Amino acid sequence: MLNEATLLNEEECYLRLKEDICRGILMPNQHLVELDLAKSYGAGRAAIRTALARLEQEGLVERERYRGARVRLVTEEEAIEILEVRTALEGLAARRAAENATDEDEGVLQDILNEMKIYYEANDLLKYSDCNTRLHHMLIKMSGNKTAAKVLDTLNSQSVRFQYKTILQRGRPDKSYEDHRAIVEAVIRRDPDAAEQAMRLHLGRILNGLRDLF
Fold first, then answer.
1. CA-CA distance, 175 to 132, in Å (whole number)?
2. Which tens digits make up the pLDDT trace of 97-138?
3. At what angle do helices 172-188 and 76-100 cross, to 10 degrees?
4. 25 and which of 20, 85, 105, 148 could share a cystine (Cβ 3.0–4.6 Å)?
5. Are 54 and 82 contained in the same domain?
6. Which of 71, 93, 119 is at the close of a domain?
7. Within 13 Å and on the Cβ side, how many CA atoms surround 188?
8. Could you write out the three-class secondary structure of the chain?
9. Quick one: 132 and 158 in the same domain?
10. Residue 2 CB neighbour total at 10 angstroms
11. pLDDT tens for residues 8-27?
């Protein structure tokens, strides 16, 4: 029996489960049995139950009567709709980031972009994709728009598995790196119009790539 002092709390369970769903460790339509998860994560069933309820509210988990919980499958049509909404919100976020940018923010963005270049040149697409996510999160944080941040956190979590598919398309990493460099350069120049345009162009390319997959 696990020592109560070592059990994951509700917040830790939520974060671990969310990460495993977003990374595809827990696959779409996979059943989520509380007892099995409690043993696997080293947590109490109450903490697992609460975490699953939060993830259900975010659209990552769904429950069926008499059948329990499972990882929700995001359809191809829904993935396209999510990306269309992301384009509008992240375009706004990039604009606000350019308006609010500080010298410290500039350094953080440049550091992430430099990491992206290293992984791009090494063809390490998984680490490149992680940097991609960090860069987008940083821009959203810089925007100061908390409502957009909450909505985008949910949307990005639901569509992350499609992100990995698009980055594997032929020629996609080349365009992706150039897109992100253009976004960062516009923000550093404190040019809101160019930052928004660059972000919309970037997400528009992803949207076209997603449509090609389907």
1. 13
2. 999 999 999 999 999 999 999 999 998 988 888 899 899 999
3. 30
4. 20
5. no
6. 71
7. 14
8. CCCHHHCECHHHHHHHHHHHHHCCCCCCCCEECHHHHHHHHCECHHHHHHHHHHHHHCCCEEEECCCEEEECCCCHHHHHHHHHHHHHHHHHHHHHHHHHCCHHHHHHHHHHHHHHHHHHHCCCHHHHHHHHHHHHHHHHHHHCCHHHHHHHHHHHHHHHHHHHHHHCCCCHHHHHHHHHHHHHHHHHCCCHHHHHHHHHHHHHHHHHHHHHHC
9. yes
10. 12
11. 899 999 999 998 988 778 98
Is residue 71 over pLDDT 70?
A: yes
**Residue with the two structure tokens 């059948």:** 67
What pLDDT does 172 receive? 65
Q: Are residues 86 and 181 in the same domain?
A: yes
Length of the chain: 214
Kindly tell me if the per-residue pLDDT of 165 is higher than 80.
no
Q: How far apart are the first and last CA of the chain?
A: 47
Residue 148, token pair as written in the block? 């957009």
Q: Which residues, at least 6 apart from 177, have a Cβ–Cβ distance to it below 8 Å?
A: 116, 117, 120
Full domain range(s) for residue 96: 76-213
Which CA distances in Å does 66 have to 9, 36, 70? 27, 17, 12
Instruction: Report if pTM > 0.85.
Output: no
Structure tokens belonging to residue 109: 């963005």
Please give the share of the chain, as a percent, with pLDDT higher than 70. 90
